[in-house]
Design goal:
The chain is mostly beta strands. It has 1 helix and 10 strands, in the order ββαββββββββ.
């Protein structure tokens, strides 16, 4: 069992202690019996019931691929607000934020320009026509720049384009 303290008794056997049992029960009650999410990237593939602090937004959908939307939930992790896409099976398929306080492992954040992206980030910009331009980061996060449709196909994203969202989830390569 996770987190239950034991002590060794004569003969080398382990025995549960009351302190360990009480600590386990208190931990389970505090988290609703659910796992504790420490990083937003840990959310993908989990069930929404693993995130008791997530709030469902009835009637709201979130775009998880250019051709699919899932139910939308909101959750705050370490003071950063995230949107979650949750499919009919209850699995979290998409995590996104437009909160500038979130910084990816590569150093990218919402509000920075393409030109300000960290030198370690390859500037291979891809386009989902009429919606976003994006760069896939080594960590699995993608930084998105809005596509207002004003740039023709094949156009280069301007260096002053700003990151509008950071997301992770099912996405065509």
């Amino acid at each position: 069992m996770r987190g239950i303290a034991t002590s060794r008794v004569a003969g080398g056997r382990s025995m549960l202690t009351w302190a360990g049992i009480l600590a386990f029960v208190a931990s389970s009650l505090a988290t609703g019996g659910c796992m504790t999410i420490k990083k937003p990237s840990e959310l993908l593939g989990r069930t929404i019931t693993d995130v008791p602090s997530a709030t469902h937004l009835p009637g709201s959908k979130i775009i998880v691929t250019p051709s699919h939307m899932d139910d939308m939930y909101k959750v705050t992790i370490d003071g950063v607000a995230f949107g979650l896409g949750v499919g009919g099976d209850g699995l979290i398929s998409y995590v996104s934020t437009n909160d500038p306080s979130f910084i990816t492992p590569e150093g990218a954040r919402v509000g920075m320009t393409l030109q300000e992206m960290p030198p370690s980030v390859e500037r291979r910009v891809q386009r989902s026509a009429g919606w976003i331009f994006y760069i896939r980061l080594p960590s699995g996060w993608r930084v998105a720049f809005l596509d207002d449709g004003s740039l023709p196909n094949g156009a280069v994203l301007p260096a002053n384009a700003r990151v509008a969202e950071i997301f992770m989830g099912k996405w065509p390569e």
